[in-house]
Design goal:
This protein is α+β, with helices and mostly antiparallel strands. Helices cover 51% and strands 16% of the residues. The protein is built from 11 helices and 12 strands. Strands 3-6-7-10 form a 4-stranded mixed beta sheet. Strands 4-5-9-8 form a 4-stranded antiparallel beta sheet, covered by helices on one side. The protein has a two-stranded antiparallel sheet with strand order 1-2. A hairpin with an 8-residue loop joins strand 1 and strand 2. The protein is globular.
């Protein structure tokens, strides 16, 4: 086991981690980076490269091999997310949802039969998974749901009606972990999680969102019209949905921290190269103190983000072994890394001047892609609330 090289994370890597990192980096730069701008421009879902990620075991990194995954750990997942995000944030978003939000929830809360039926095709990359919590009038306030799941008279199916919004990968999703109200009077305790086969009648997809960034990661509404979900597809028990959603988001936030780090690293490396090569007034611009200040501030934020992400990984690994939550550590990593990505991409674009604003370089894409990391899987405002409530001992 060796220490992680500078430029990754402050944790120890096994030989298996080193091999994974090298393979993912090579794949991302060979297969994803050359087509990233094209997919960003068209907004087309990159199904071919997503299938290739599945063939490499990346769509279910922490999923045990018996369920179709790679059987690795959280460090492996974060290393993968960083490298994929450096090549293209859209691909890393698809990867994150599959791993952290879909597979993680079923692994932790599903029955053995559910794990075998619902995880394998998604963890292997043969099918696409999604996670649906948000509704048009229910974002940060997840308990304010209008969708309803009512048990039929025979007690065999829940009849689901409603509209969900901002569902990542929904236009291509084969299977979805859905959260809907089974007892509205109980507030967040009335939310239940369901496993949804999108090929069944009563399910349809709404408009695909025209987004500012991560444009190749397709996002749309989904609509349920008397969708009959078998009772055996309830995940974790009736009324356990909110607990499942929040637990899964802890893992998801570590993934978004890693994504933000990847975007920031790509922008920083581009700025560093440009500062060495670009000359003004007879000298490389990196020789001027103002540029040096920007480089120093960018580097410091990235390293601080790596440290917080490393802390979150360790907290998650402890929780996986001994139980408990790692909510605060995940929130701190996600909050800091997402805001660091915003800072670094902005400064990198500034260093490039007019060229940074042009689509001829990927800087403007990094800048747009970084913006969403402060919004999805809990806004920066929500992260601050989560952290502060933990510190104040508030429930």
């Amino acid at each position: 086991m060796t220490a992680v090289q500078a430029g990754t994370l402050s944790l120890a890597m096994s030989e298996e981690h080193e091999m994974l990192l090298a393979a993912v980096r090579e794949f991302a730069q060979r297969e994803i980076a050359p087509v990233a701008a094209e997919y960003d421009e068209s907004g087309e879902f990159p199904l071919d490269t997503v299938r290739k990620m599945g063939e490499m075991g990346l769509m279910g990194i922490e999923t045990p091999e018996e369920y179709g995954g790679a059987g690795m750990d959280t460090l492996a997942y974060v290393l993968t997310m960083i490298e994929i995000a450096k090549a293209d944030a859209s691909h890393s978003t698809i990867l994150s949802v599959n791993n952290s939000l879909y597979c993680k929830g079923i692994l932790q809360f599903g029955t053995e039969a559910q794990k075998r039926e619902w995880i394998r095709p998604v963890a292997s990359g043969a099918e696409i998974g999604a996670y649906s919590l948000t509704e048009p009038m229910s974002g940060s306030d997840a308990s304010n749901m209008a969708s309803r799941a009512i048990l039929n008279d025979a007690g065999t199916h829940y009849i689901i009606n409603g509209r969900k919004s901002w569902v990542t990968s929904a236009p291509y999703a084969d299977r979805i972990v859905l959260f809907s109200m089974t007892a509205a009077e109980a507030g967040h305790r009335g939310i239940t999680a369901f496993l949804i086969d999108t090929k069944q009648p009563g399910f349809s997809r709404g408009k695909t969102e025209p987004k500012l960034g991560i444009r190749a990661s397709a996002t749309s509404e989904i609509i349920f019209d008397d969708f009959a979900c078998p009772v055996e597809n309830v995940l974790g028990g009736i009324g356990q949905g909110f607990k499942i959603a929040m637990t899964v988001l802890d893992a998801g936030r570590i993934g978004i921290a890693a994504q933000a780090l990847g975007i920031a690293e790509a922008a920083y490396e581009a700025a560093l190269d440009y500062a060495r090569e670009r000359e003004a007034f007879g000298a490389p611009i990196g020789s001027y103190q103002m540029i040096q200040q920007k480089i120093a501030d960018m580097k410091t934020r990235i390293e601080a983000g790596r440290a917080l992400t490393s802390m979150a990984i360790l907290a998650k690994q402890r929780a996986d072994q001994h139980g408990g939550r790692y909510t605060s550590e995940a929130s701190m990593a996600k909050l800091f890394c997402s805001e660091a990505a915003a800072f670094v991409t902005d400064e990198a674009l500034q260093i490039h001047g007019g060229m940074g604003y042009s689509k001829e370089l990927p800087l403007e894409r990094y800048y747009r892609d970084a913006r969403i990391t402060r919004i999805y899987e809990g806004t920066s405002e929500i992260q601050r609330m989560v952290i502060a409530r933990k510190e104040l001992g508030l429930r």
